[in-house]
Amino acid sequence: MTKLLEGKTVLVTGASAGIGRAAAIGAARHGADVAINFARDTDGADSAVAEIEALGQRGLAVQGDVADPETAKHFIARAVEEFGKIDVFVNNAGICPFHAFLDMPVETFERTMRVNLHGAYFMVQAAANQMVKQGHGGAIIAVSSISALVGGEYQTHYTPTKAGLHSLMQSTAIALGRHGIRCNSVLPGTILTDINKEDLADEAKRAYMAGRVPLGRLGQPDDLEGPIVFLASDLAKYVTGASLLVDGGAFVNLQ
Fold it and tell me: Name one GO molecular function term (predicted).
């Protein structure tokens, strides 16, 4: 297999499970050393690092809550200390505590904003500063969502954060292009992860959701591996400010 990220160092937030874990292991499979951020799941983080190392690459897990701006500085510093550089940054960490709009608790709204959007802003800023300092460009990928483009009754706090990530990548593509740093986003559809496990526990709802997808199934975390690796690699050397739907065709299905 051609290793598209050979010799690169990749950082991924929220990578103890789900899409982040798949992206981290996919990067290692393509020849990258990988540092992951995680919030609480120590066992998941340890096993992700073990998988990275089993692929012959160096792995590092750094614990921290992305809602705290200091976490970004610490994560970047530890990765540089361990690996010497950053080539690719994948902002994946996010939460979606489903809740109705009219009685949305202030703390639920604010926590979602701090993790999904504020956390992403400071993580991307810290990674970009390190890339500028290094002077050899880089790639930043944000895991946004189809929810950046469509609404959700129980996601009125979540969808604005994903639209914000999409917009952040467009603006940072302009701000960082002169430094050779490419900024893009992936927009997953419904992916079977811990974030929606409870919401999709109802088999009827799960079947309904799958039935809306032209490819006939809901997504798995590793469905994001290829798109993220592509955007991180030199195959995408002239791609910046772009967004890539990874949704099985759900967005275009109006039926």
Answer: quinone binding
pTM of this structure: 0.95
With 0-12 / 13-18 / 19 or more C-beta atoms within 10 angstroms meaning exposed / middle / buried, residue 65 is middle
**Is 80:55 a contact under the CB 8 Å cutoff?**
no
Q: What is the mean pLDDT of the chain?
A: 96
Q: Which of 147, 162, 185, 233 is catalytic?
A: 162
Residue 85 appears among annotated catalytic residues: no
The encoded tokens of residue 227 equal 């798109």
Residue among 144, 158, 185, 233 flagged as catalytic: 158
Q: Catalytic residue among 145, 147, 185, 233, which? A: 145
Per-residue pLDDT band at 44 (split at 50, 70, 90): very high
Structure-token pair, residue 61: 């897990």
Domain at 9-246: CATH architecture: 3-Layer(aba) Sandwich (3.40)
Q: How far apart are CA 118 and CA 110, in angstroms?
A: 10
pLDDT digits (tens, 9 = 90+) for 192-220: 887 776 767 778 888 888 888 999 999 99
List pLDDT tens digits, range 216-230.
Answer: 999 999 999 999 999
Residue 162 catalytic?
Answer: yes
